[in-house]
């Protein structure tokens, strides 16, 4: 028998029909009635009651603190909305990177209160993982899949199989309360003492033909970190609307510019093409096969650890919590 703490944060799983559409409205007593307590000791904390669209980095810290303040539990389940669940899973993977316990995030596409809901299965699967998993870390459990928190991406808006594991194997599968491990994840926390903190002064820019370079001036004025979803393997235009010069201006000001790709699968090889080599030479920090959700959380976390650009680059490019496997620079 394991001691499991459930943190309820709202989301579709606890939503009910209201005047202006679905919104969180289920009480913690109602939510807890769907958890089978026959084989485990389970406690519940109503942490917040939000549609995950409204979940902010400050909420990631609140959830993380709740876990740290309750160390007596063997495992943790977080019920959460699906729209930003992957961001929360990534953030907790960094904030709690050295915690040797299993943390599970789950939710649903259809509320618990509806007849044809996926929530009941996801709750049962989350309990199976929390009680039986022998691998610590943060994981997203949805539609029978156990996905590393830094590798989960929501890829469908309505279907039950809403999440995919990007550029990393599915860790395990759950069927009929049985856990079948598919991949043996190693425990790889940060190799340095970390602060439980985030710097949210971060912007995300998706490159497109015709994008003005003026946005870089704004980021420079804000003294912020920037993530750029580039074309293909890391290329940005340097003719006409010159975005490469924008990367250089930020880098020269000791501001991190993380270069990822708009292509979801297989990561990037920034040195493959001349356009990518120019971005790297301008100071763009390549992020390999990491997904955007993980990069956003990791950059906020890295910038809270240090303001030294070389150290931020080192943190971004160091694998933590399974977030990075293929880095070509």
Automatic annotation (TrEMBL):
GO terms for biological process: amino acid metabolic process. It catalyses: L-asparagine + H2O = L-aspartate + NH4(+). Its EC number is 3.5.1.1. The keyword Hydrolase applies. Keywords: Hydrolase. Belongs to the asparaginase 1 family. NCBIfam families: asnASE_I (TIGR00519). This is asparaginase.
């Amino acid at each position: 028998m394991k001691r499991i703490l459930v943190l309820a944060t709202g989301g579709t799983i606890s939503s009910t029909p209201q005047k202006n559409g679905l919104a969180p409205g289920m009480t913690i007593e109602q939510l807890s009635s769907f958890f089978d307590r026959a084989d485990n000791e389970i406690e519940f904390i109503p942490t917040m009651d939000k549609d995950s669209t409204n979940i902010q980095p400050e909420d990631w810290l609140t959830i993380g603190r709740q876990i740290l303040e309750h160390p007596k539990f063997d495992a943790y389940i977080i019920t959460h909305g699906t729209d930003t669940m992957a961001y929360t899973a990534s953030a907790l993977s960094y904030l709690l990177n050295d915690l040797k316990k299993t943390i599970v995030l789950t939710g649903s596409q259809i509320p618990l209160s509806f007849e044809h809901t996926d929530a009941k299965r996801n709750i049962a699967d989350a309990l199976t993982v929390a009680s039986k998993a022998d691998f610590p870390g943060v994981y997203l459990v949805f539609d029978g899949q156990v996905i590393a928190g830094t590798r989960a991406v929501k890829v469908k808006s309505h279907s039950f199989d809403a999440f995919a594991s990007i550029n990393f194997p599915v860790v395990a599968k759950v069927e009929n309360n049985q856990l079948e491990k598919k991949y043996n994840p190693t425990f790889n926390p940060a190799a340095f003492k970390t602060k439980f903190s985030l710097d949210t002064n971060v912007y995300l820019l998706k490159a497109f033909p015709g994008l003005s370079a003026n946005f870089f001036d704004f980021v420079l004025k804000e003294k912020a970190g920037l993530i750029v979803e580039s074309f293909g393997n890391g290329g940005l235009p340097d003719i006409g609307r010159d975005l490469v010069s924008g990367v250089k201006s930020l880098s020269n000001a000791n501001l991190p510019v993380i270069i990822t790709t708009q292509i979801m699968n297989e990561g990037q090889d920034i040195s493959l093409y001349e356009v990518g080599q120019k971005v790297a030479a301008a100071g763009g920090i390549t992020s390999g096969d990491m997904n955007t959700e993980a990069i956003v959380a990791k950059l906020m976390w890295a910038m809270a650890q240090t303001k030294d650009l070389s150290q931020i680059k080192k943190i971004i490019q160091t694998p933590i919590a399974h977030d990075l496997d293929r880095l070509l620079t």
